Amino acid sequence: MEYGIMDLLEGKATRRFSSMHNWGSSGSITLDHGLDGATPNLHPAARASSRKKPEDALHPEEVYRLRGDDHDDLEHIEIDHQEARCCNTKYTQSLKHLLPFRPPRKDKSLLPSNNAGMFSYVSVSWLTRLMWRAYRHGLNPSDLWTLQREDGSEVNSERIEKLWEDEKGLAEKDKRKPELWRAVWRSIRTRVLVSIFISVFQNILQFLGPSVILKMVLDYINEPQIDNSYAGILVVSIFIINVFRGAAFNGMFVVGTHTATRVTGAVQALIYKKVMKLKTGGEKLSAQIINFSNNDMERLFEASISCTFLTAMPVIFTMSVVYCIWILGPWALIGQGVYILFYPIMGAIAKAQSNIRVETVKVTDKRVSLMSEILNSMRLIKMYSWEDSFAKKIAGIRKEELKKHRIGALLQAVSSTVTPSISILATIVTFLAYTLSGYSLKSAEAFTIFSVFNAMQFTVGVLPFTIRSIAEAKISMTRIQKLLELPEHKKRAGGLVNNNLALQIKNATFAWEINNIDFKSKSGPPGSAKGKNKPDTKTNGEVKGEKPQTNGHVTSGQANGIKNTVSDGKSDPVKCIETLFNVNVSVARGKLIGVCGSIGSGKSSLISAICGDMKAQCGEVQVNGRLALVTQQAWIYNDTFRENILVGQKFDEELYRKVLRVCALESDIHLLAEGEMTEIGERGINLSGGQKQRVNLGRAVYSDRDIYLLDDPLSAVDAKVAKHIFNQCILGALGNKTVIFVTHATHFLEKCDEIILMQNGKIAERGSHAELMARKGEYYDMTGYDASRDKSENEKEPDEKKDEAVNDVKKEEGEDKEGRGKLTTEEARATGSVSGKVYLTFIKESGGWCIASIIFIAIIIFTLTRMFNAIWLQQWLDQGDGLVEERKLNMTKENTTYSDDELKGDISQNPMLWMYQLVYGLSFILLLFTGVIKGIGVTFRVLAGASKLHNKMFESILRAPMSFFDTTPSGRILNRFSRDLDELDVRVPFFLEFLLQGLLFVFGQIILVCFIYVWFVLPLVVIVFLFIVVDVFLNAGVRELKRLDNTLKSPVTQHIGSSISGLSVIRAFDKEKLFINRMYKLLDKHSSSLLVFRLSNRWFTYRMDFMAVCVTVAVTVICVFTKGLVSTAFAGLALSTVNGVCVFIPFLMRMKSEFQSRVTSVERIVEYAYELPSEAPREIPSSKPTEGWPSSGTLELRDVKLRYRSDLPLVLHGISASIRDGEKIGIVGRTGAGKSSLISTLLRMSELDSGSVIIDGVDISKIGLHTLRSSVSVIPQDPVLFQGSIRYNLDPFEEHSDDAVWQALERSHLKEVVMKQEHSLHSKVEAAGENFSVGERQLICLTRALLRNSKILLLDEATASVDIETDHLIQTTIKEAFVSSTVLTIAHRLNTVANYDRIMVLDAGRLSEFDSPENLMRQEGSIFREMMQAMGVNTVEQMQALT
Question: Residue 1412: how many CB atoms within 10 A of its CB?
């Protein structure tokens, strides 16, 4: 029922859809009609003009919920109308499930389960059509239903959020620490109690079948009289009890699965919303949140379902104690005592498993964090040929992780052996004690007790799993709670003072907040951070101390590190590192403020302080207006080009075109395959550095905010485009806005209204350009390095050469034309059953067929030992007192009839009683021994296989070409190394052992019954056929849905990583709600697949259970209608066996289905381990150059043509050039001209389409990649650092002495910065180098190149983020240190290459000019000359003066 909003306000109900703009994303309107009519209680004017409708008096209140369906800009609002009803409670919808049948919902796209009747709900029949479709055609994400609102993450996360706030209030009131698990428990309490009620009902029925009814059947068989009607009643009773038991069991699971889906979706949404409120993001936080989402949610899901089993043991135990005492007397308590002793044993094992899990999670977090860092920095790792170093680090962490897993596997082996043995031990102890005391044990009594203990086995067996699940979930809750308790970002409040100031900071000191909480232990393998008391060390990546660098823009490493323990027991959980001191800034509205200073002086920190990412230790901060942020390193997320600019805002064609024009993006649109609708890859991989920065700037301009914070946005673009952007965008489009503009370019600073010079975290100078020049202070000295420009040229009006930068760019394929609209590939999903090749590969990696055969034999021995126990009991009882044969002869001679008990006599009088008792007792010892051997064999070999597959997958990832990473989101790869590997390490061993053990046991028991009753073979054949049909054919749906579950999890992981990396941008633009709504949608899509997958297991198991009931009924029919053919002991053995098997089979088949679905994770790992494309070999011994190659550094390009993938156009068009040894070559060109692509060809990051590159007479395509890349030094466009120490980042292979490292640091002008660190070379570097400024990171990359000291040096915008003075010093260092080396430098700052030997000008992938800078300056129409003129340099003399 849909209404127009205006009609609602006027009291009209016209049932039409309304289009609205700029409403909140969700909410509700409550229309209180009153009893006198339909007038909404909203506004007097509206009420006066409304038309009364008497019939609406029946509905005193109507709620209209606003939902921003699929439109992120909320252009369309859906209004859900809920009519009030009498007796309308929050349980009304749930109580409708008690109706036997319900009509289907009209909206077929919504999940049907919430509207299903009781029969359909319990049996999951509404899923049958989808399961059939899965078998016939396979499944796609589009085949899934949409999650209903009550199951969605939004509603449930808001509820848990409220309960968490309530819990904090209650905790404060009770003077205790708040606990997240209490809030989660309160959110699911009612549903869990309903599940427990169903569980108790099921437990009662589960007990009645194998106890009371079985005893009645055996008593009937024992008596000689035949009563077919009584026998029929027994058969019908068993059928009804088992059918209702199966339905109750399935219903309990269905309710639990819905509950678990709600909880996991809600908690993930809660985590994400908290992340949106944290101070800063970063790689470290991203890896931990992804681990929460992938691994911890699995624990929480299992705990939400299995917690209902906690009541099963007390219920079954109580009933069995009472019944067994009634049958055997007090002696039955001995067997029950065994179960009581079992509790603390399994509790101890579960506690040990939980402790190991805590330790394992810490190491897994560390591995996933490093893996995330590797994936995000893969291009640089390949450029440096550092694969071996990172492989060593990952191997070290993985080795430690496997140690923890092996301990857990050992405990699992003990648990899996003790659990099935406990019922056998209880039986043995009870019967031995009973017979040793001189009592006679009857067959009916013995096998009733045996059957009761067997019935308890399932309950007991589930108990350790339940305890472990709850314990692990509680650990996960504790981990998540630590995140939720972190301090939150507070936006700078505006309007505090009513004045004309846009920004005012008074006497403020700002600090980065560093959280000492972390999940990781303080010790670790190479590359991990060490405790403060650790002695100084020089090993790979190890660091000493935790004190962070305070010069640069510190982000996640400091702000959001989440640790279990505080590194120093006396330190506070949150430590503040003061970075900006005594800041005083007043900025009037509409002013352009330039911010400059040397690297690490605090420029980016000032921007962060204004955004609210830093804590104000003292002073006042006032921000009057909405902020727009352009970060120094552009944030681009995986969406279309247009959406990266709009970010959820309404599309305004005129404004959008203006943004493209002023940000010089018009030409880039034509270079993209699908124009503005082209998909941009994760982290903007298919855009050049300049394009990314201009998109970043375009986003800010389009947002139309009040205050713009621009952190060095022009460093990544060439001089001509920079001038265009400054004139058209900053001075033009943003002319009436307040702009804080960080830059190193003094010719832009001149036009700023005011300039702030930062130095050592303080404002050193402040004033206009003229004022600061007159003072002749620091600013004057800085501009001295850039004083050779022609001022008159630079003083032209901004519009004089309007659009020249844009109009001159040719509309041809550029450097990174990376896709035909769609870039990211769809994730491959196998269909049908898991390939036999996957199983064969897994067996091979786990030790081969020999080991597999030994383990299989051990499981067979264990199974036979379990069966022997029951068979021996039957033999013992059938022998009676040893006089059975004599009585049979007497029966024949005297023609008398004995009951079965009379025939056997008193077994305590048997002369061989001691032998039966001894063998019966020893069988348990053999059972334990074979069980432990079997358990260790299975789990340890699976772990060995998991280790090998991980190593092969990691090696395969390292060897994959860059084109693979360009088209594959890192979240998809990370999913393999987190969720899938966790399945292989933890779940697969458990399920495999349980499955092999269970299948062989069931198979053996069925064969045993066939030996006792040959007639059982006939119904068995029919039932086995049905089993196969259901298992082989319809079980395809379970596998398909598990694959969908895996596939739909990747976008969630990717969204988390992308959001955290752009946290400051999202928050500055007030887009938290938009990204949270997107997270809701992604979570709901995944939750839908997860819920349907789990319920498909129940669909499958329920049908298996019904067939198992048929088996039980068939055996019972044969027993009661063929009485006298076999002894009561044989009948008891058959019935107790079948009862045990039939209770166990549904659970076993569920485990089989679970195992098959878990094996899809193995399938995904095998895919990445063996099927990924690979780069050329790292080493080719036959063509390896001589030692010391390249010795001179000559370089020749012969008709070089390059395309990034075979389906893409060329990005380099036949470039030919010859470069002499020792020559210094500058590579310039407009953004997207192919400069970085040319550098890529020299390192073979992509193989050439045609042509060749010759270095010192060697064709680089003929040698190994490691040989090539390790012989060339490179300083990349995006400087990347890794977690570890400073020394590790400079020299990961420890090839150089400390003295050499210090010399290199001195040459790169970083020595003083490093010496200021608490532990100098061994000081900590955070993930991605987040505790260093971008400029400092570039200098560290320069130091790497100085240490390698190759004959060829490649610089890709290496000094774009450093100030002019430092740039000048670096260029001097390069001239001195690489005087005999060939240097190729890509530069947008033309002064850095003005004194080079020759300049290579690229244009649209072609070599346009290649000559000395002097000749190019004299050449009319030269592109190089035009670029120089854009800087204000018009003559050769002026150009030479730049250097």
Answer: 12
191's tokens? 């549903």
Closest CA to 903 of 916, 915, 890: 890
Q: Which residue shows structure tokens 């609210």?
A: 612
The C-alpha atoms of residue 266 and residue 159 are separated, in whole angstroms, by: 8
Tokens of 711: 């952190």
Neighbours of 352 (CB within 10 A): 16
Spatial distance between the Cα atoms of 604 and 766, rounded to a whole number of angstroms: 17
Q: To 5 degrees, how large is the angle CA 209–CA 210–CA 213?
A: 55
Per DSSP, 559 falls in state H
pLDDT tens for 497-548 read 446 788 889 899 998 876 555 544 333 333 333 333 333 333 344 444 443 3
> Length of the chain, please?
1443
Confidence (pTM): 0.69
Long-range contacts at 44-48 (CB < 8 A, ≥ 24 apart): 46/9, 46/10, 46/11, 47/11
Q: How far apart are CA 216 and CA 1070, in angstroms?
A: 72
Instruction: With residue 628 as reference, give the H or E element that holds it.
Output: strand 627-630
Between CA 1365 and CA 946 the distance in angstroms is 53
The answer to whether the beta carbons of residues 293 and 1056 sit under 8 Å apart is: yes
Contact 858, 933 (CB under 8 A): yes
CA distance 102 to 99: 7
CA distance 320 to 313: 10
187-206: buried (b, 16+ CB within 10 Å) or exposed (e) per residue?
Answer: bbeebbebbbebbbbbbbbb
> Which has the closest alpha carbon to 250: 111, 423, 116?
116
Strands 1398-1403 and 1382-1386: unpaired
Handedness of CA 606, 611, 617, 620 (dihedral sign): positive
User: What residue type is assigned to position 714 of the chain?
Assistant: L
pLDDT, tens digit, 9 for 90 and up, residues 392-434: 889 999 999 999 888 888 888 888 778 777 878 888 888 888 8
Q: Is the CB of residue 1176 less than 8 Å from the CB of residue 1265? A: yes
Residue 158 near residue 271, CB atoms below 8 Å: no
Q: Two tokens at 538?
A: 């020089």
What rounded mean pLDDT belongs to the chain? 77
3-state secondary structure 491-510: CCCCCCCCCCEEEEEEEEEE
What is d(CA 257, CA 307) in angstroms, rounded to the nearest whole number? 12
Residue 486: left if φ>0, alpha if ψ -120 to 50, beta else—which one? beta
Alpha helices by DSSP H, listed for 146-227, are: 153-174, 180-208, 214-222
| Cα angle 753-754-755, degrees, rounded to a multiple of 5 | 135
Are the CB atoms for 1067 and 276 separated by under 8 Å? yes
d(CA 788, CA 1131): 106
Q: How far apart are CA 359 and CA 376, in angstroms?
A: 26
Band of pLDDT at residue 594, cut at 50, 70 and 90: very high
Q: Are 924 and 421 in contact (CB under 8 A)?
A: yes
- Contact in structure between 1396 and 1413 (CB atoms under 8 Å): yes
Nearby residues of 647 by Cβ (< 8 Å), 6 or more positions away:
699, 703, 1069, 1071, 1074
Q: Is residue 122 within 8 Å of residue 251, measured between CB atoms? A: yes
Residues 6+ apart with CB under 8 A from 325: 332, 333
Q: 169 Cβ partners below 8 Å, 6+ apart?
A: none
d(CA 1428, CA 1425): 5
Pick the more confident residue, 787 or 1206: 1206
Q: Which residues contact 1291 (CB under 8 A, 6 or more apart)?
A: 1301, 1344, 1347
Per-residue pLDDT at 815:
38
- Residue 127 is classified by DSSP as G
What is the side-by-side strand order in the sheet with 1195-1202? 1212-1219, 1195-1202, 1250-1255, 1258-1259
